Structures are given as C-alpha cells and as structure tokens.
Amino acid sequence: MRKLFLIFFFIVITVACKKEEFNIINLNENRITVLGHGGMGIASTYPMNSFESIVYSLNLGADGTEIDIEMTKDSILVAFHDFELSDKTNLSGNIFNKNWNEISHATYKDPIYTGYKIINLEMLFSNIGNNREKIFALDCKNFNPDTSINYRLTYCNAILKIIDKYNIQNNVFLELKREDMIMTMKMLRPELKIFVYSDFNNGLRIAKKYQLQGIVVSLDKTTKEQISEAHENGFMVTVYNVHSNKKNIEAINKNADIIESDNLKHLLKILK
Amino acid sequence: MKFALIIFFLTVFLNLETFSQIKQYKIRRNTLFLEAGGLGGYGSLNYEKLILHKNQIMSTIRVGISTYRVVDFTNKFNPDVILPVTFNALYGQNHKIELGIGNTFSTIVRASLPDMKATRTLDFNTIFSFGYRFQKNTGGVMYRCAYTPILEFNEYLRHWLGISFGYSF
To answer: Which of A9, A95, A187, B168 could form a disulfide with B139 if both were Cys (CB 3.0 to 4.6 A apart)?
Structure first.
C-alpha cells in the first residue's frame, strides 16, 4: 500500500513538474518575443501603461512591453489607452484636447487607495535605466480625428524625437492603425519597424502595400494557417487579447512571433 | 391589608419580570471576519471588538488589514499595507443595522517624481459604512453586507460595497 502511494505520488509530481515543450516555427528565429500588454496587462493591480506596470513587467524578465501612446495638444506623448480620461482616471475629456500640464496630475482610479499617476514617454524613458535595452511596441492611438498632414507630421515627429533622444530605434516597434499615419512614418523614417494594427486580411494587404515588418492581430480572430500565410509572405505576427494561461499556450501553438500577454508571469514561466 | 397584599404581589411580579430579563448568556465580544470589497479595497481580514452594550445598542471598534501586493515594481519585497479602522454603532438583536465611520491608513509604494524611484507614502482616507448584519450576541457565524463609501485621499468620493463573513467568539 505504501509503495503504491509512493508511486502515485511520484507520478503526480512528475506530471505536475513536466515542462511543456513547444515546436515553434516563425520568422523570429523560431522563438517568441514576450511582451507585457501595457506592462502587466489588464488584470494587474498596476494600471496598464503606468510607470509601475511597465517597469515591473521589464523587471520580471519580459523581452519588452507594449505601450499605448496618445499625443496631447502640445505634442507630448502620453502612455494611455482609452479615448476618455474619465474611463480610468480622476479627470475627464480627451488627451488630444488637452495640454500636458492639464493632465499631468491625473491619477488612475483603480485600484482604490493607490493613486498611481499617468506618465508621458519622456518620464518613462528617462527613468528606466538599463531597461532601455528592452523592446518597446508603441501602440499609436490616434483618437484625434484630424487627418491633416500637419497633424500627422507632428505626431510622427514627436515619436521620432523620443526614439532619437533615447537611441532606441533598434528596439522599437511601431504599431499603427491608420494608413495615412503609416504612409507618413514610412516617408519620414523608412527603416523603422512598423506593424499594422488591423484584422488579418486587411493587415496583410497593408503590410504588402507598404512593405511593413508585420501585422498586429487579435489572437481570437486569427488562425494558425493565417499566421503561416503571413510568414510565407515575410511578415511577422504580433498577437494581443492573450488574457489567460490557455490563451498563452494557444498563441504559442499558433506560432506567433510576438505575444503581448496579459498573463505575463505564466508566459515567461512556460517559455524561459 | 388589601392594599398591602396588592403591593406584595405587585412587588413579587415585578421582581420576577425583572429576573426573567436578566441575560442568562454570555455576550461574545470578539469577531473575526473576512470582507470582500469594502473598506480594505478589494478585500480585508478584520477584527472587531465590542466595547459597549446597552439593550439593543452596541458599539464596536474594527481594525482590518489588506494589501494589493507584497513586492513592488522593482521586484523587491515591499508590501502595500491598507489598514481600515472604524467605530461602529449597531442596533438590533440578531439582525442588526450598522453605522460606521473611520479612516483607512493606506501606505502604498509608488514611483515618484523626479526620478521615479519606489517610494512609500502614507495616505488618509475617510470611510463610512451603512449596512446590515446577522450576528447573535451569543456568538457564532456572522454575515454582513454594507454600503461603504470612501473619501479617497479625503478628496474623491468612491461608492463601494462590502460583503463579510466571520465568526464571533
């Protein structure tokens, strides 16, 4: 009886400790770049895009992180995800309608009692030390309805100013949704790694048209075959909406090149 | 004589009535409970002490503890600590109405300007509770639900709710 129990115990421990193995085939030298989603993701007690969330994800060992960026009226790039400030902070209105000094005191509403502050990219890159060697996927949110060349140039130049100042051109991916913004950025700095943020078919079309680095797609809406098709065309694929352990494994098995995970600790554990 | 008898019987009757009202049970003064949501933020472990009891009115003091994380963003052990302290007035026998006021002492580790280093700050937050609880004076299980508005940093009003489950002893 005792022997049986020991054998059973041994089997349970072996199965529990067995490291999952993956056969990854992609354009990223068959490895996956692990990025945090806005730092530690949507379910963390650190608000997405806060300094704390971004730096914690880098300190945990992620290859880098995705950061959502919006531009103020006075051309300051702010790390923030939503259209409305009131969705996540104690202020209201839109970032593109305000100057930085009007929003610099904004604090995130959740979690209660914490009072984490909104930050701009200058504050981030000037204070992350060696973490500047990590990868940053800048998800460019262009909520401003202005499509003029003037606005596009201002937005793209604000990004380039940060990239040049902190010498991070080799470790930045730009994620752009609007075709006019892609065109403008390509015109200003063709060597930058640009990903189009779209559904798969439209993304593939735009990536081909502008010779981009790749496509950013929702994991739920993309199949393994589509990712293979992107690879055959020479485009990398970044996936988001990766919220759980199961989704992490699904993203790996679909051979994504880059995963922006909301469950970073698990993804790091199974890949590293 | 008649008058004397009436007085005698009345006295005995009233005394018996009085004796019957003497509580034969021991009032349990301590309660431990877990609160989901509520004054600790997302949840807290709490101790409550009965400090005053008269008829159906009770007064208690409650101290809780909670945290969001034990390591800070630099990945070092540096826990956030949230301590709600309230004074409560309760009314009722087994089914009680609760009114409370107090303060949450929150000491949270944040990145602070100018160098964004991990810095611990202490903040004060005025807290209130308006709720219902089932709690027998003789002890045993306790259930509670309350509307727990929080004046965060004594500046922003947050509407909040708490559900508790605990044991009195």
So the answer is: B168
Residue ranges of the alpha helices (H) in chain B? 2-21
Beta-carbon contacts of A184 under 8 Å, excluding residues fewer than 6 positions away, are A149, A152, A153, A155, A156
- Residue A58: its chain B contacts at CB < 8 A? none
- What is the least distance, in Å, from the CA of A87 to any CA of chain B? 14
Euclidean distance between CA atoms B91 and B89, whole angstroms: 7
Flag whether the ipTM exceeds 0.90: no
Give the CATH number of domain B27-168; options: 2.40.160.20, 3.40.1370.10, 2.60.120.20, 3.90.380.10.
2.40.160.20
- A113·B152 Cβ contact <8 A: yes
Domain-wise residue ranges, chain B: 27-168
What does pLDDT average to in each consecutive run of 10 residues of chain A (272 residues)? Answer: 60 55 91 97 96 96 97 97 96 97 96 96 92 92 94 97 95 96 96 96 97 97 96 97 97 97 97 86
Residues of B in contact with A116 (CB under 8 A): 110-111
Cβ neighbours of B116 in A, within 8 Å: 51, 55, 123, 127
